[in-house]
C-alpha cells in the first residue's frame, strides 16, 4: 500500500514538473546592429549570454546580425533589443543609448572603422 502511494506521489510530481517545462517556449530571433569589430562582438556576447532568459547569443561580424535564442517566458525580443541599445549599439529600430554609445572605445563608435 505504501509503495503504491509513493509511486502515485512521484507520478504527480513528475507530471507537474513536466507541465511547467512544457510551457517554456524557445524562440530564435535576428537583430541587426551597428557593431563593427571583435571587441563589439565580445561586449554584446558578454552581456547577452548572461541575461535572464537568453539561451544563446552570437554576433556575426560580416552581417552585423545578432542571432539570439531565448525563452519567451523569461524575456522578449524587444527587451533584448533594449539591452543591446543600453550597451551602446543600435538594435533594429531601437537606437543606441547615446551616453552608452559615447562610452564605447573610439573604434567601436559609428564610423570608428571607416
TrEMBL record:
Transmembrane segments: none annotated. InterPro entries: HMA_dom (IPR006121), HMA_dom_sf (IPR036163). Residues 26-92 form the HMA domain. Pfam families: HMA. Gene3D superfamilies: 3.30.70.100. Signal peptide: none annotated. GO terms for molecular function: metal ion binding. This is HMA domain-containing protein.
Amino acid at each position: 500500500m505504501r509503495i503504491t502511494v509513493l509511486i502515485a506521489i512521484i507520478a504527480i510530481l513528475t507530471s507537474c514538473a513536466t507541465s511547467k517545462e512544457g510551457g517554456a517556449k524557445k524562440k530564435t530571433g535576428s537583430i541587426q546592429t551597428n557593431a563593427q569589430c571583435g571587441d563589439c562582438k565580445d561586449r554584446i556576447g558578454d552581456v547577452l549570454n548572461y541575461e535572464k532568459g537568453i539561451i544563446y547569443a552570437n554576433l556575426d561580424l560580416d552581417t552585423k546580425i545578432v542571432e539570439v535564442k531565448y525563452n519567451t517566458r523569461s524575456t522578449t525580443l524587444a527587451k533584448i533589443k533594449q539591452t543591446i541599445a543600453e550597451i551602446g549599439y543600435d538594435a533594429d529600430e531601437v537606437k543606441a543609448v547615446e551616453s552608452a554609445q559615447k562610452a564605447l572605445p573610439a573604434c567601436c563608435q559609428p564610423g570608428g572603422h571607416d
